[in-house]
Amino acid sequence: MFIIKSSGEKQEFDPEKIRRTCLRAKASPELAEKIMKAVSAEVREGMTTAEIYRLVFGLLDKQSSALAERYDLRNAIFRLGPAGFDFEKYIARMLHEYGFKTELPPILQGACITHEVDIAAEKDGRKMMMECKLRQSQEIFITIKDTMSAWARFLDLVDGANMNLCPHFDEVWIVTNSRFSLDSIRYGHCKNMVMLSWNHPKERPLPAWIEQKGLYPITILKDLPPEALARFAGAGLMLLKDFITLETGELAQKTGLKKSLVEHLAGEAQAILGE
Description:
A five-stranded mixed β-sheet has the order 3-6-7-8-9, sandwiched between helices. Strands 1-2 form a two-stranded antiparallel ribbon.
C-alpha cells in the first residue's frame, strides 16, 4: 500500500514507523502496539502522511495530552522560527546541556572572505563550527550544495586561522530539523563532517538528543495561545525545563500573562516532562 508524502512523492506504508514514534513519545509498548494496529486498519491507498500523523496524534491525545504533545515534537520545532526563537540558539542551548561550551560568534574573517557562523562550540579540547538549518518541512532537504558550502566555509576559516585572522576550528557540523539528501550524506561523511538531522545518524538523530534530557521547546505546549509565544520569546524562556523552575507569580510578571494561564501551562509542562 502506498501513501503520499507532503512533497507529493509516493512511499510504501510502514506501520512500524507508527510504533517507533509512539514509543519515542514515551507511550507504553502495549499502547504503541494498539495505536499501530488501529491506524493500520484506517490507512487507505493514497492517504497522506499528514492524515496519518493526525490519526496517531488524536489517538495519543485520547490517552494523554502529554503523550500527544511529545509526539508533536517535530511540529514544535517547526514553530520555533515563527514564534521568535532562533533555531541556532535552541541548538546552542541543547549542546550546553551536553557539556559543550557554546557561543554565537560575530562575523569571522576567513583567508578569502568573511563568514557568518551560527555556533562556535568546544568540548574535550576540540573546537567546532556549526551551521544550523531550520526548515518548515521535512521534505525540504539539506542538499549537496548546502553541505559543500559548509565545507568550503570551514576550509576558508581553517586557512584564516593559520593567518591569525580568526579562531581555529577542528571540525564542522551541520544541524537541521529536516533531512539530508543521500549525496549530502555521502559527501559529508567523506569529509568527516558531523551531520545531525531528524533521522540521521540512525542510532542518535536530533530527536534523541532532545528527548534524552527533556529539552522540549516551549512551542510544544498545546494550550499556549499564539499571541503568548512572543511573550515567552521576549522573556528568554525557550525550554519547558526553564519555564517550570520559576514560580508562577514570577512567570506571570516576566511574561505579562495572567497567573491562571501561567499555572495551567506550568501543569501542562510538568506533565510533558514528568510522565
